Amino acid sequence: MKQKLKTLGYAGISIFLFFSLIRFPDQALEAAIRGLNMWWEVVFPSLLPFFITAELLLAFGVVKFLGVLFEPIMRPLFNIPGAGSFGWIMGMASGYPTGAKIASRLREERQLSQIEAERLVSFTNNSSPLFIFGAISAGFFYNIKLGLLLAVCHYGANTIVGIVMRFHGRKQEQQVIKKKKYSFSLKKAFQEMHRNRLRNTRPFGEILGDAVLNSIQTLVMIGGFIILFSVLIKLLFLMDITPFLATLIEPFLPIFELPKELGLPFISGLFEITVGSNLISQVATDSLLQKAMLISFILGFNGLSIQAQVASILAKTDIRFYPYFLARLLHGTFAVILTILLYKPLYLDRIVIRSNEIPAATVQDTSIWMNTYYLLQDIGPAVTIISLATAVFIIIYKNKINNPL
């Protein structure tokens, strides 16, 4: 019976999407182009270097090296091997869904158990500093000082989530590691890296080609999800579904001293972070804290668009999705609490301190992130075209080698 209900549910969603596209073809096309531009100009060129670098570091054993070095930190703090430090660092630097990508690769190479990989995924899918400072703070709010508050609360809450999730799956683990001392050993770390490199017998050209191809394939999948959810959010709004959901939560917003006008932007943010953050920034409120609280929550929640990307990446492994989803709720909650606690010291007090500074200082702070964002928009399409052409060339070259005439 359960499987039949699933079948009906999946079929109903597909039929709804089909008829919605027929009903609103122009608006759907506009939303698809908007999602494509976002992926084409910013997402692809910003994530591609990180994905390729991650593949190369895995192939050459550098992750093994980091794993041995950071074992004394990662095991007591998060109850995962030191190799997880690589996913933690890369996740913070490049943004989602890099953490899920690295966790799945570590699981495929059996550097992590299933439970350890689920713990790692739960706290390594962060928003990138470029998105927090460039897109949200400078682009939407025109207030770069807000970025520090959002970043500290976002990354701090994620660290707390990692500590909480260290207890996940302890009963299911076959080997519970206790009372074991982990010492710092540079020599042992190098030996592990060397052994890992020797086990990889592929030539450098093949390793590089596989890294590029795997990264581009993942990014193409991510682009598909971005376009799909861009269209879906637009259709849900046109069909009055999103406004209906907003009316359900609006009565509860005054409990948290939030205006009802934030209901629709908040619901939109639960589907897609960028759209929701932009809408939240446009609502007039008594205090910026009210907006910062909702922004912090949807950044921690990741949005259903990001969660769908993560689910697609994890589907190739035995890593379960529900611990990641639970962690997203915890992340959003912790981020809101930190935002309330740190709003005065990290935002209000900084405004008072900087009020006597020359305006040029603020302009310089803003330009660091916005120039990076604008640079990606300028060179992004060229990088995307060259990368896709490279992927096609690699596929053709591999086919010729594997199937010579």
UniProtKB/TrEMBL annotation:
<feature type="transmembrane region" description="Helical">
    <location>
        <begin position="379"/>
        <end position="397"/>
    </location>
</feature>
<dbReference type="InterPro" id="IPR011642">
    <property type="entry name" value="Gate_dom"/>
</dbReference>
<feature type="transmembrane region" description="Helical">
    <location>
        <begin position="321"/>
        <end position="343"/>
    </location>
</feature>
<feature type="domain" description="Nucleoside transporter/FeoB GTPase Gate">
    <location>
        <begin position="42"/>
        <end position="136"/>
    </location>
</feature>
<keyword id="KW-0812">Transmembrane</keyword>
<protein>
    <submittedName>
        <fullName>Sporulation integral membrane protein YlbJ</fullName>
    </submittedName>
</protein>
<dbReference type="Pfam" id="PF07670">
    <property type="entry name" value="Gate"/>
</dbReference>
<keyword id="KW-1133">Transmembrane helix</keyword>
<feature type="transmembrane region" description="Helical">
    <location>
        <begin position="292"/>
        <end position="315"/>
    </location>
</feature>
<feature type="transmembrane region" description="Helical">
    <location>
        <begin position="120"/>
        <end position="142"/>
    </location>
</feature>
<keyword id="KW-0472">Membrane</keyword>
<dbReference type="InterPro" id="IPR014226">
    <property type="entry name" value="Spore_IM_YlbJ"/>
</dbReference>
<feature type="domain" description="Nucleoside transporter/FeoB GTPase Gate">
    <location>
        <begin position="220"/>
        <end position="315"/>
    </location>
</feature>
<feature type="transmembrane region" description="Helical">
    <location>
        <begin position="219"/>
        <end position="242"/>
    </location>
</feature>
<feature type="transmembrane region" description="Helical">
    <location>
        <begin position="47"/>
        <end position="70"/>
    </location>
</feature>
